[in-house]
Amino acid sequence: MPKAALPYLPVPGALFAIAKPSGPPCMPMLDGIKPLINQSRLFNDPAGIEVSKQAVKKRRFKHRPGGVKIGQGGTLDPLADGVLIMGIGKATKLLQTHLDGPKTYRATALLGAETDSYDSEGRVVRTAPWKHVTRQQIEGVLDRFRGDIAQLPPIYSALKMDGKPLYWYAREGKKLPRPIEPRKVTVFSLECIDWQEGAPIEGEGDGHHFNFPANRVPDQDKETMKAVRQLIVGEGNVPGVAGELLSEAGDLPEVEEQGRPPTFKVEMRVSGGTYVRSLIHDIGHAVGSAAHVVTLSRIQQGEYHCEEQPGDPGNCVPWSVFQKAIEEHHAGGTLPAASGEWVEWEEAILDKMKMVE
Fold first, then answer.
1. Residue 337: which H helix or E strand, with range?
2. What is residue 330's predicted lDDT score, i.e. its pLDDT?
3. What CATH number does the domain located at 103-301 have?
4. Which of 85, 134, 142, 213 is paired with 61 by a 20 to 30 Å CA distance?
5. What is the spatial distance between Cα 281 and Cα 97, in angstroms, rounded to a whole number?
């Protein structure tokens, strides 16, 4: 949207998307953007800009220095990259629609090990046999996960009940205050789009080069996790394939095979609230092995899309544009101009945003 098309300033609301890279957590990204937004005449009036500047100087931020609201339409794990929808001002009211709406992901999973976080950022809980698994077997179990399913988050996640993590109840021998509520989600489509054999452990070669995480869960924590699983299974309130796999989890073998196991890559279109990591974890169990996420990309959400390639942000604003502006801001450098010119990050938003009145 060119500057001439703006009916007035400041803009009452704007909706756009950032192409998030893998690595940074979402909340620090938002924290870095907020001072830019609050000190931009694109989104704030002169009085609000002055309030924001004074708050930054005095380190008194309170809730929103300068009064500009900013929010996101569905956070991404640090490991994940892709579409991160942003709402500013009146556009924050539209974010719930994006949170609840369908999203498309591509996830690469490494066979042979499950982790406490269900991704490569966690610690290895169990290694499992993988040499029997083929692409055809992966494709053969996917139908069990299509349609309306029930999911549980990673057992070793931050899921709490009455303020305490689930494993606390197992460790203390306490009964769960109430049954764990599974999350009902819909998997509209789920396809295996790639299969890669592992490259040799030593030397170069064809295939991927992903490895298991270096850290492992101590035996004491494994017992805690097993107790938590028994409590969940004992309640018997997880229907469908998730409940079946959870019940079978205690009987899965602990095996460490030689070599580098293969990866499989899936593309899925899912409803809001779907645990992608749990889906990969359960697929690993369904083929008699284990699996965890090593790459994750949100490639479509609403009208916004971007590809996995770093140079193709689609109709999203590249994060590098904001990263450069944040670094300059911290160094006391370039701020939004008071003249009729826009700085680079403002131009990037103007080019991609949908104005909301």
1. none
2. 80
3. 3.30.70.3190
4. 85
5. 28
* Residues annotated as part of the active site: 77
Q: State the pTM of this model.
A: 0.88
Is 105 within 8 Å of 191 (Cβ atoms)? Answer: no
CA neighbor of 301 nearest in space, from 79, 34, 32, 101: 101
Name the residue among 208, 201, 314, 204 with its Cα closest to residue 262.
208
CA 105 to chain centre: 10
The C-alpha torsion from 312 through 310 and 208 to 139, rounded to 10°, is: -40
Domain boundaries, the chain: 3-100+305-355, 103-301
CA distances from 341 to 39, 41, 50, 325, 338 (A): 15, 11, 19, 15, 8
pLDDT higher than 80, residue 157: no
Strands 263-270 and 183-196: antiparallel
Q: How far apart are CA 27 and CA 209, in angstroms?
A: 30
Per-residue model confidence as pLDDT tens digits over 267-303 = 999 999 999 999 999 999 999 999 999 999 999 999 9
Tell me: the pLDDT tens digits for 176-202? 677 677 889 999 999 999 999 987 655
pLDDT value at 152 more than 60: yes
